[in-house]
Amino acid sequence: MSHLRSLAVKLKSCSFGLLVRSTVNSRPLLPRCAYSSEVEDPFLSGTNSSYVEEMYFAWLENPKSVHKSWDAFFRKADPGATGEANHVQNIDVQNKSSIIRSQGLAMAPAKAEKLVEDHLAVQSLIRAYQIRGHHVAQLDPLGILDADLDSFVPSDLITTIDKLGFYGLHEGDLDKVFRLPTTTYIGGNETSLSLQEIIRRLENSYCQHIGLEFMFINDVEQCQWIRQKFETPGIMKFTNEEKRTLLARLVHSTRFEDFLARKWSSEKRFGLEGCEVMIPALKMLIDKSSVMGVEYVILGMPHRGRLNVLANVIRKDLEQIFCQFDPKLEASDEGSGDVKYHLGMYHERTNRATNKNLTLSLVANPSHLEAVDPVVQGKTKAEQFYRGDAEGKKVMSILVHGDAAFAGQGVVYETFHLSDLPSYTTNGTIHVVVNNQIGFTTDPRMARSSPYPTDVARVVNAPIFHVNADDPEAVMYVCSVAAEWRNTFHKDVVVDLVCYRRSGHNEMDEPMFTQPLMYKQIHKQVPVLKKYADRLIHEGIVSLQEFEEEIAKYDKICDEAYTQSKDKKILNIKHWLDSPWPGFFTLEGEPKSMTCPPTGIPEDMLSHIGNVASSVPVENFKIHGGLSRILKSRLEMTKNCVVDWALAEYMAFGSLLKEGIHVRLSGQDVERGTFSHRHHVLHDQDVDRRTCVPMNHLWPDQAPYTVCNSSLSEYGVLGFELGFAMASPNALVLWEAQFGDFHNTAQCIIDQFISSGQAKWVRHNGIVLLLPHGMEGMGPEHSSARPERFLQMSNDDSDAYPEFTSDYEVTQLYDCNWIVVNCSTPANYFHVLRRQILLPFRKPLIVFTPKSLLRHPEAKSSFEEMKTGTVFQRVIPESGAACHNPQDVRRVIFCTGKVYYELVKERHQKQLESQVAITRLEQISPFPFDLVKEEVEKYHNAEMVWCQEEHKNMGYYDYIKPRFLTILNHARPIWYVGRDPAAAPATGNKNTHLVELKRFLETAFNLHCFEGKTF
């Protein structure tokens, strides 16, 4: 009996699974998996020894009483047992049971235990290959490196006969036949294989030119799907026609690089040599996705191979590419432009493989290699949103990465963590890693701590398919499976093309300085095109003549395009737009006029929005008691025709929704607002996850309002929102930082895309950045949104005295690279948001939003300031006693933002209302020369002072000073009042903060402090 109990314990992890006995219609005892619909991992299955005993004794009595699989098992485990049992039939029935049991116990052999142990060993062996087979796969085309940076061979992989001992198996077991578990497909239609054949098939599936990482995925169905795609014998087959197509695509990819190398040998082009297979790989991904219904593919990639992708994937005219190499080419568009291997492209064409219409967009990207990742995701999300493609079946994204950047750049991780968030998911992205096995000059062993550059993808359970890039058919198969995975599961997937870089980092670089052994091998490496062509010629699929004709055909195309490119003397960068907005810049075929209509709205609309903002438009919805008080306060303001900051924002958004403008607000905790002022999403206090967004209940046919808390990411989320804003001009897309200086970690997106995007790529973008700013004594990290950085990057000329034409305000906005404002009233905030959409063009808008002003009793606006006919005030002049007698005013204090209210309070206390005027600059950049000039001339006897709460080397002073001097013709000074220069944006000591505040307010109203000082 002890033998059988031991057998039962061992069977707990056996492929035969949990044993159950049917009591219906005397069905034979079966393994659970024989008639259960559940898919079970055999290593997680359990059993009970009594079942095994009952099964065994039932079989001894009558072999037909158990399932045939168990009959076969017990026959092999206990040969002759049934023969011994036959004579029992002649024994008295009363003694039958005891005799069977005694004989059964006597014959419960060591053979049965050995057989079970061997089956378990084989299952462990299969699992080892599935988990760790990629570590010994032949992935490096050069044959000199290990793709996982480790030459160690896992001890549980049977790479030599002596390793059979790890499982308790021996060479003599190789011919034994073992039943295969349900968690493998290596048998095809066979349920049993010899050990030798099992090992051979596992090696073919997991240890050749494809290395699979997927067993960390916590979904059995997904794991089984991948196993079937790669384990099924003979599944990786291509027709002769498919092989010829692959060869032709390799010809195009390779000969394009060869042509550039011949014509421009001394030019940087960041060619694809060493990974030419990437072009047919991308085309396979696109073709396969198109077959499955995808209509729009958005790509992002670094500079390596970009020209080849433009030429052979996006189908950019070759002459347009070649003319980029002409140093005498004149730019026809305003702006700086960019190097050719940073440019993007948008193209609509018919996909030859499917005869379906297909749109391709390659997003422009700077040398900050992975910065484009979230931008592509945001643009993809927007295209899905506007097409109603909630499952991502029509629009998808492909991201191409370099191995060193994929492992080293944090934005990759941030982007992956957006992949499954409801308001950010794009329903699966295909990531293609061009794994050069080297950075610029840095060995991968010095560039990452993980075995593979792709390990970051494991955090979202994305399967990772490593493949030797010198095996084109393996690459094509992997790409086909990747496209199917994305279409089936709508989740990310990674294709790791393990390749090499034939030249240095660029064509002018000498790689032998730092990687001599690698490049000695590379110099001897036969190009993949020749390898594959020789193979197909040997197989008789193509002839040498056909191959040479294909090369000559493509070379002729390149030569003709080169000739035509010489006729192009002007570069029109608009041909390289990756996000065109058809019809936006024209009105009925004519260019839009440089005007902006008034941004005010009817009073009844203001009241309606205020009433909805004060209500809960869902029945039986219980809100928090504190929120009830907030809504009641909103209702009171609406009745009194007054708004605070939050209500003004509500009215700006709501009015745009009525006009069909989609509004999307994203960022950390934006639904409630960092300072608990917004409350755009209401939460039922009794029902989990039941929410209400009153903004979506304003009008019966309104545009949708999207407000979404983001992950704790700035770089990734700001890039995402930038991409979202890129897709359509008819949307107000806003990103709010939790505190203004949190944009520090998104500086790359600001510098590379927002500040300079139009100059480099003629790409308008209307994204709005809301940056809480103000010195409130909260310490150096929660005070300053760093306005000096944005102003330093503004492109208006401080020394150029403008011509004030009738449309000066709008043309000045059109000529700037972005708009920087610091509104001091809710009404002005309302107007600037609406102006952002009503302008005939799109510019990024930077808004320094308040903190204490959100609830400041003086920081309120009346409906009168927001009604029809009203507009955004770039400058708010003095409206008190000083403005009535400007000749008597001794000092004009110019300021912006929150400090205005502190100045007004201090002026009142000192009773200087008639002697000191206070003027607010609401729009700081582009600088409102015309309105500031009016103020300066109005108070011609007064001294000019700029007062700010920020330190002198920060804030606005360095920006406004030269512009004031231009207006004053350097005849009069503009004095500075504020905090002294400092290294940190603010003090962390509350008392010091108050002392500093008191000191500069005293100076601001000391009418003698500048006497005797030289300018």
3D architecture notes:
Helix content is 38%, strand content 13%. With 1015 residues, it is of the alpha/beta class. It folds into 5 domains: 2-108, no CATH class; 114-231, no CATH class; 240-576, 3-Layer(aba) Sandwich (Rossmann fold), CATH 3.40.50.970; 603-773 and 822-865, Rossmann fold (3-Layer(aba) Sandwich), CATH 3.40.50; 875-1004, Rossmann fold (3-Layer(aba) Sandwich), CATH 3.40.50. Strands 5-12-13-11-10-6-9-8 form an 8-stranded mixed sheet, with helices on both faces. The longest helix has 24 residues, at 240-263. It is globular, with a radius of gyration of 36 Å.
Give the uncertain stretches in residue-range form.
1-49, 83-94, 99-107
**Residues in β-strands, percent:** 5-15%
Mean pLDDT reading: 88
CATH topology call of the largest domain: Rossmann fold
Widest β-sheet, arrangement of strands: 5-12-13-11-10-6-9-8
EC number: 1.2.4.2
Keywords: Calcium, Glycolysis, Isopeptide bond, Magnesium, Metal-binding, Mitochondrion, Nucleus, Oxidoreductase, Thiamine pyrophosphate, Transit peptide, Ubl conjugation
Catalytic activity: N(6)-[(R)-lipoyl]-L-lysyl-[protein] + 2-oxoglutarate + H(+) = N(6)-[(R)-S(8)-succinyldihydrolipoyl]-L-lysyl-[protein] + CO2
Protein name: 2-oxoglutarate dehydrogenase complex component E1
